[in-house]
Amino acid sequence: MAHSISSLFTGIEPDEHAEFKLLFDEYYRPLTSFALDYVGDLDTARDIVQGFFVKLWELRHLIKIEISVKAYFYQSVKNACYNYIKSKNRPTDLKFPVIVVEDDVLEHMIATETKEKLYKAIEKLPDRCKLIFKMSRIKQLKHAEIAHILNISEKTIESQIRIALKRLLHLKTVLLLLFFLTLII
């Protein structure tokens, strides 16, 4: 069933801004992470996603969505990334066109959403636990380095990491998937 973007805004015309902001707030970060996988630069990814939302707003009464809104957003951002890549890699000699290999948007979408779930779960950890976990697992500092920086014992570091891992245990499937995706990519 085709939906128009304007039908997503349930309020009257002045309330469309609020409805659009809800869509923006829900999708901006995951779409930016998704775009980052394609373009490799955070500022560029942000620009692409912001450009997508600007265009979406400007054309909201004309756009018809034949698939899910989420799939439409991800496919649109993917296309915008490819357009950006093509424009940056435009060969000077037209005999050698840029070839962009198609990949599975669904796989990237799942990976992006998995990362988002993991980041959100980490953000829900207690402050000290979260700080230590990020220093260990994201910044990849050794326990001794973290202990020195925070002026606490290595046993405390180990304890806090154990607490974090226990709290994240419900995400073990997500963590395994994320691990295997990083091996593939």
Structure write-up:
The protein is mainly α. The chain folds into two domains: 3-88, RNA polymerase sigma factor, region 2, helix turn helix motif (Rna Polymerase Sigma Factor, Chain: A); 105-184, Orthogonal Bundle (Arc Repressor Mutant, subunit A), CATH 1.10.10. The protein is built from nine helices and two strands, in the order E-H-H-H-E-H-H-H-H-H-H. The protein has helices at residues 5-8, 16-39, 42-58, 69-88, 105-123, 127-138, 143-150, 154-167, 172-184, and strands at residues 3-4, 64-65. Strands 1-2 form a two-stranded antiparallel sheet. Mean pLDDT is 77; it is low at 91-102.
- The helix tally amounts to 9
CATH architecture of the largest domain: Orthogonal Bundle
Helical content band: over 70%
What count of domains describes the coordinates? 2
Task: Show the helix and strand layout.
Layout: E1 3-4, H1 5-8, H2 16-39, H3 42-58, E2 64-65, H4 69-88, H5 105-123, H6 127-138, H7 143-150, H8 154-167, H9 172-184
Antiparallel strand pairs: 1-2
Helix pairs in contact: 2-3, 2-4, 2-5, 3-4, 5-9, 6-8, 7-8
